[in-house]
Amino acid sequence: MTHGVTINDVAREAGVSISTVSRIINGTAFVADDKRRAVETAMQRLGFQPNYLARTLITGRSMTVGVIAEDIVSPFYADVIRGVEHALLDTPYQPVLNSGHWSTQYETRAIDTLIYRKVDALLLLGSTLGDDTLRDVAGRVPLILFGRRVPGLESHCLTLDQRGAALNATRHLIELGHRRIVHLHGPPGQQDAQERRAGYRDALTGNGLPLHPELELQGDFLEQSAAQALTHLLDARVPFTAVFAGNDQMAAGARLALHRRGLRVPDDVSLIGFDDLPASAFTIPPLTTVRQPTYQIGQALARHALHVLAGEPSSLPDFDLTLILRESTRPLR
Questions:
Q1: Separation between Cα atoms, residue 76 and residue 56, nearest integer Å
Q2: I want to staple 290 with a disulfide (CB 3.0 to 4.6 A). Which of 85, 131, 274, 303 is the partner?
Q3: Which of these ranges, 3-7, 153-157, 172-176, has the smallest mean pLDDT?
């Protein structure tokens, strides 16, 4: 990097005014594409690096968007984050990532850290915090929520019909003749997990089938929890013919538990997941699951944040959840 290069040098090299260079660096106004390219080329050639701390002090903006997921290494959240990142690529804003780790303590710390670092907006991908706390956060920084609907913040909340999608997935198994269906559900208190569990129960009661508490197994949306829970059920010799897992990762754990007992999917046990992670189409057999458009969701959240920061009207779109039929389910024989 060349030291001592100033904004004046960049303007002279690009053949534009100093104010044009400033607008491009700060993202404060529209600049024609040819001028933007000339300035970016000049900055690269001269090795100019903007002083972002000084810019933050002057403009009151850091040009960053905080993103907190329950777990940023989760395949589900990773694809949402990929959508956020791509939506911000050609803008002055950069994402800053952190994890909440399914913990109110760690999520609160992550929020406080990002606000302290002056992020301009905050995206929460799921949250363990109460509604009052989230409303308080929204009073400190523009807040966009995915997977939570908070009274008073509805216009900045993106939620999907998790309950209806879970009902459809369970009903598919019932239509195939299954009556004793295991449900591996997510963490207690997690909104998506609660709604999917409710949808599972809706499908059973709506088809005149009894609820069996012993078939509702606690998981944490990770593979190991599902493998352990289903192994314990198999050890107890509780009969079942199908499994509806609360997400694809738990479906993978369930598949492992069945495999270790010599049970084949779908010949012996039908299996459905939720999310349609990229790898789910390539398991053996390919997994029947509910598709969530994770990448498009991430893009929509980021674009909404950009509109909010620009003071422009914006609404979050609705997304459909689709049951994707593959080879992991079959009629009961």
A1: 33
A2: 274
A3: 3-7
Q: Are 134 and 103 in contact (CB under 8 A)?
A: no
The β-bridge partners of 291 are: 275, 322
Write out pLDDT tens, residues 301-322. 999 999 999 999 999 999 999 9
**Side chain identity at residue 26, one-letter code:** N
Q: How far apart are CA 13 and CA 36, in angstroms?
A: 13
Give the model confidence (pLDDT) of 268-289 as tens digits: 999 999 999 999 999 999 999 9
Q: Can you give the pLDDT at residue 163?
A: 98
Domains of the chain: 7-50 (1.10.260.40), 64-160+294-318 (3.40.50.2300), 162-291 (3.40.50.2300)
CA distances from 322 to 25, 169, 179 (A): 42, 9, 23
Inform me whether the pLDDT recorded for 56 exceeds 70: no
Nearest-angstrom CA–CA distance, 307 and 257: 47
pLDDT tens-digit map of 141-170: 999 999 999 999 999 999 999 999 999 999
- Residue with token string 């049951």: 323
Contacts for 305-309: CB closer than 8 Å, 24+ residues apart: 305/65, 305/121, 305/123, 305/142, 305/144, 306/87, 306/88, 306/91, 306/93, 308/121, 308/142, 308/144, 308/156, 309/93, 309/120, 309/121, 309/142
184 neighbors 151 (Cβ within 8 angstroms): no
Q: SS3 breakdown of the chain: % helix, strand, coil, rounded to 5?
A: 45, 15, 40
Strands 64-69, 94-99: parallel, antiparallel or unpaired by DSSP?
A: parallel
